């Protein structure tokens, strides 16, 4: 048994590798306050009870990538959170050109990716000076409270607005 001090190489080999930085560490920390919207409000919008048209007046953005399974909310775009920040200028231009007044971001729970991306888009709106109210043609950036998990858990008529709904995926998720 050797009592000689370890070499630097031996010490480095024995030390656990540092955990990789989270995906969002490559981008600035959002500065804007989070604004949210309830699933009840979004359901009324999807039903057409508010006079707002999906894909025109409001857009739903599903931010899931690896966990994009089990269905998505009707009329949603899938823009994975990991690639959203560099595309903010393009997303803004598309939404502004279309006259969209609400962009609603969501992920599984909307407490991580959903809230982060909604705040990044709010930051971008401030950067380009688009801080006018919705009625004055401004865009609102919102996160769906509870995300798609909350939506599916609500059951009933909410499930009518989940495209590609796969109940087995949600049952499996409940048991984990």
From TrEMBL:
Rhodanese domain mapped to chain residues: 54-160
Superkingdom in the source lineage: Eukaryota
Pfam families documented for this protein: Rhodanese
Listed GO CC annotations: cytoplasm; nucleus
GO MF assignments: protein tyrosine phosphatase activity
Gene3D superfamilies, per the entry: Rhodanese-like domain
Protein's recorded name: Rhodanese-like domain-containing protein
Provenance organism: Sordaria brevicollis
